[in-house]
Specification:
There is one protein chain. By secondary structure, the chain is α/β, with parallel strands linked by helices. About 45% of the residues lie in helices and about 15% in strands. It contains 15 helices and eight strands. Strands 1-2-3-4-5-6-7-8 form an eight-stranded parallel beta barrel, surrounded by six helices. Helix 5 runs parallel beside helix 6, helix 9 crosses helix 11 and helix 11 runs parallel beside helix 13. The longest helix has 17 residues. It is globular, with a radius of gyration of 17 Å. The structure holds 2-phosphoglycolic acid. The site of 2-phosphoglycolic acid has 13 residues, from strand 8.
Amino acid sequence: MSTAERFFAKCPNQRSESSRHFALSEKSAAKHKSARSMCIISGFLKSERLMATSMVATKYIVGNWKLHGSTQENAVRLAALKAGCRHGDALAVCVPFPYLAQAQQALQGSAIGWGAQNVSEQAKGAFTGEVSAAMLADFGCSCAIVGHSERRALYGEDDATVARKAQAVAEAGMTPIVCVGETLAERKCGEMVQVVTRQLAAVLAHVSAETKQRLVIAYEPVWAIGTGLAASEDDVREVHALLRGQLEKAGVTGTRLLYGGSVKASNAGALLNTANVDGALVGGASLDAEEFLKIAQAARA
Ligand code: PGA
């Protein structure tokens, strides 16, 4: 079982009672952090044995390749990631659908997980061009991104669709990585809190209690995506505290909160050390294996 598979594990039923209790007993960012220093409280721990051996806090680092790659390019990148990844890292790459089999073949048996960038909310049927969550699971995916701002803005995905997709991913035994984040215009209008809260609330209102425990939330301010200009640590701290509070109010504790938006090796250390940041969703920088591995290294520090 690879580390990433442990984190993005497949079956909620396999989660140990004590890890569940551990996660549920958390109440604040401080407690959250100290709990992680004792064991990994991903919420997807599979056994007591893993709890005992996982003594260090580990951040999730997830690559979002977007619409990039070719079999040739991918082969080089995947081999470099596999070679450079260290025991204890929790890495995953979300690749374009056609390359899932390639990622599976290249990464199987490694500590790196793989997943998709989107999924259909439908299980099967006459939905031309769609890919179901079960199909992703069939290719060994451990996670899928849902509600990325590019999907919301360019493909008209609304909050309700995102919520249905998150549920579909979890029902197929994978981890839904749900993206939330405000546009620059919304931030300038003072609507950041309202937007991010609404996006998360829609998911929490729709998904099952079991799915809630499996969610990973990625805060990705739209204005920071692909711009080279990451959010400041203060901005990230503020929004992540907001998300943590909203989740806890809904009775959901131990949720991994990722930050995404122009994460690179040079800013990863500071961002990953910000309160309530449990990992990063990395776009552009994930296309460069060396850069991605440096981010993984920053996550270890
Ligand atoms: P970026 O993208 O790292 O290139 O800003 C992040 C994302 O869109 O997930």
